[in-house]
């Protein structure tokens, strides 16, 4: 006979429902290790069945340690599950594993961690990505678990890098510096604004200046260093960094 204590012990070990634990114990004839194996197999089977379902929501988690930033993107089907405590704990466990054992190992072992939570929650969950960012003065910012940014500076402080990461999350620049803008994008912008300029009744020389002005304004709004700093719009991000003796190396942005 399966006892309540046995069910509780199995539930504490696996986190799945009381009913599933009892069924597994009955199938295993009370053998706890065999019951755990049964539940693991069922969680894998359930995960396989849900694997084709869209998982476009989720959570972004960033943790920093020892001059490195670890970024986790964990996907699920709905925002309701993204706010679930079990889902959040899963994300924390995966990123902690990456910090302890390395990204490659965490990716290898992620399915074993994810499948029991799929079994418990009932939605498809999949690993979006785990990344390690390093190489300078780091700062990171996550907004509501839906947008995350890591900034790498040359010089400066982690507080400054975090402020710039917060700015990137708010203002969503496409490029760090003007030099990063591809020539083909500049040409596409010229083609786009050329139609607006051609519609005006201005001399050709004025039209050329208008076109270049529109292209310049567009990419100034899309480039981090040219943007007014979100905490102090009277200075650009370029000026902010210059005053601190820092330079932008790169930023990485993750969003849902």
Describe what this molecule looks like in 3D:
The protein is an alpha+beta fold and 256 residues long. Among the domains are: 4-50, Orthogonal Bundle (Helicase, Ruva Protein, domain 3), CATH 1.10.8.10; 51-134, Tetrahydropterin Synthase, Chain A (2-Layer Sandwich). The chain is built from 10 helices and 8 strands. It has helices at residues 4-14, 18-27, 32-50, 79-82, 85-101, 103-121, 158-171, 183-198, 204-222, 237-243, and strands at residues 57-65, 68-76, 126-134, 137-143, 147-154, 228-229, 232-236, 247-255. It has a 3-stranded antiparallel sheet with strand order 1-2-3. Strand 1 (57-65) and strand 2 (68-76) form a beta hairpin. Helix 1 (4-14) packs across helix 2 (18-27), helix 1 (4-14) packs across helix 3 (32-50) and helix 3 (32-50) packs across helix 6. The longest helix has 19 residues, at 32-50. The two termini are 49 Å apart. The mean pLDDT is 90.
What is the topology?
Layout: H1 4-14, H2 18-27, H3 32-50, E1 57-65, E2 68-76, H4 79-82, H5 85-101, H6 103-121, E3 126-134, E4 137-143, E5 147-154, H7 158-171, H8 183-198, H9 204-222, E6 228-229, E7 232-236, H10 237-243, E8 247-255
Antiparallel strand pairs: 1-2, 2-3, 4-5, 5-8, 6-7
């Amino acid at each position: 006979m399966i006892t309540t204590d046995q069910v509780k012990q199995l539930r504490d070990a696996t986190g799945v429902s009381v009913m599933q634990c009892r069924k597994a114990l009955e199938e295993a004839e009370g053998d706890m290790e065999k019951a755990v194996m049964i539940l693991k197999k069922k969680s894998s089977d359930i995960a396989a069945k849900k694997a084709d379902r869209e998982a476009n929501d989720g959570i972004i988690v960033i943790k920093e340690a020892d001059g490195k930033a670890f970024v986790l993107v964990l996907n699920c089907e709905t925002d309701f599950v993204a706010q679930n405590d079990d889902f959040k704990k899963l994300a924390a466990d995966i990123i902690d594993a990456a910090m302890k054992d390395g990204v490659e190992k965490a990716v290898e072992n992620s399915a074993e961690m994810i499948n029991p939570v799929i079994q418990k929650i009932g939605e498809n969950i999949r690993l979006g990505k785990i990344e390690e960012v390093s190489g300078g003065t780091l700062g990171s910012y996550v907004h509501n678990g839906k947008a995350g940014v890591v900034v790498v500076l040359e010089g400066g402080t982690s507080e400054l890098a975090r402020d710039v990461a917060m700015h990137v999350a708010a203002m969503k620049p496409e490029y760090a510096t003007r030099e990063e803008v591809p020539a083909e994008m500049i040409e596409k912008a010229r083609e786009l604004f050329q139609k607006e300029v051609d519609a005006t009744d201005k001399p050709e020389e004025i039209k050329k200046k208008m076109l270049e002005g529109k292209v310049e304004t567009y990419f100034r709004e899309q480039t981090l260093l040219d943007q007014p700093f979100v905490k102090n719009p009277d200075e650009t991000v370029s000026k902010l960094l210059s005053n601190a003796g820092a330079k932008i190396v790169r930023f990485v942005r993750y969003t849902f």
